[in-house]
User: Fold Arginase family-domain-containing protein from Schizophyllum amplum.
Amino acid sequence: MPHVISLSRRRITLSSLLPAIKCTSRTLGPKLGGLKMLRTLPVFALLVVGARAHLGEQEHLRIELDELVKQGTPIGSDSVKSPRWLEKYGPQFDQTFSGPLSFSHLPYHTCLEQEALDYDIAVIGMPFDTAVTYRTGARFGPYAIRSGSRRQMGSRGYTMAWGMNPYESGLKIVDCGDIPVSPFDNALAIDQMEVAYNTLIGRPTTHLTGTQPLGKDGAEHPRIISLGGDHTIVLPILRSLYKTYGPITVIHFDAHLDTWPAYVGTTSPQSRVTHGTFFYLAQEEGLMSNHSIHAGIRCKMNGAEDLENDAAVGFKVVATDDLDDLGVPEVVKRIRDRVGDSPVYLSLDIDVIDPGLAPATGTPEAGGWTTREVKRILRGLAGLNFVGADVVEVAPAYDHAEITGIAAADIVHDFLSMMMEKTVPKGGYPYATPLHIVDEL
Ligand SMILES: [Mn+2]
Assistant:
């Protein structure tokens, strides 16, 4: 049934004007306050004119409604003759601050169950945080990094630093959602992460045609960017990468070594598996090469023996202070020289950045690198044989104004470019603008 509104035209009389006169008087009264003229006839006439205009406008609206009723047009139904969104404004689109949450507004797929889905680079969340030594909360890291990425979009992904837009590179990038990891059983969760990674890396690529297929099977595999989660997620990742590529060389940005054999209180095999021991366990399992490298180390240690153990696990160290003494170019050179052309996995603990610039993390360490310094080093690593990367240990409960989530999302944007570019971009090292010293004397 059409919705009918009954309306009647009414005559404008002095009595019908009285409420409007009162309203107009209240509006104008204070402005004319104190003037005796307020009681005079000319002012009354002014009020009447104003009120008539007010009611006249209402009458105009009534006439329009009368016309609709006369035409039998149902009010509020779908057939009202008003322009539709599509014809007036075009397709619906997400703005930076709207839409469902996926990394950089990328297409969101439940990749683990979509067997036929292919892609070149997949973003996957690993909301696992039950193997930490200090603050929990990194299970919300994937959410925080995606949220921090909202101002990144395919249509606005070009940067001067890289001289390219990774979303318009021709490669297919998708957000694969989060792995549904158990928050109750770490052994189960770690197996779930490995099975998920095997599943994702086993899919065919869409466009990626590397000049050097790195897989043991002679094929090129999709690159996976993981959003942690605490750092333990790297153990199942390395297990999966090893199956695909053989021993993996790691570039590890972190304030901490993460090569400790065990912590005090370890009483079971499972309790050895933590966010500070996973590299030791990976080396024990033979998953890594012996030419990996840390960048940004500054944590307190048990003693110098920690560094001896670290070297035995297969790492060299670029300490936080080295950046001040050596500069970005030399730090980049040391990393590149160390890893060579082997299959490289890049793992970045957000705590490599100073807690002032990335406070939302589980084990903050004062005196870290700036976000800009980390980004410059990352640019210098373009062209290495990256097989995957992650940002871990983002725990947004400790964040302020999304600083950490935004920094982590920006770093993932750099990962995308870093994996695509075959050479170091001109905007970054080593082609930075030469310093021209002008003698003004
Ligand atoms: Mn760390």
Observations:
- Residues 103-420 form a domain with the Arginase; Chain A fold (CATH 3.40.800.10).
- The CA atoms of residues 429 and 435 lie 13 Å apart.
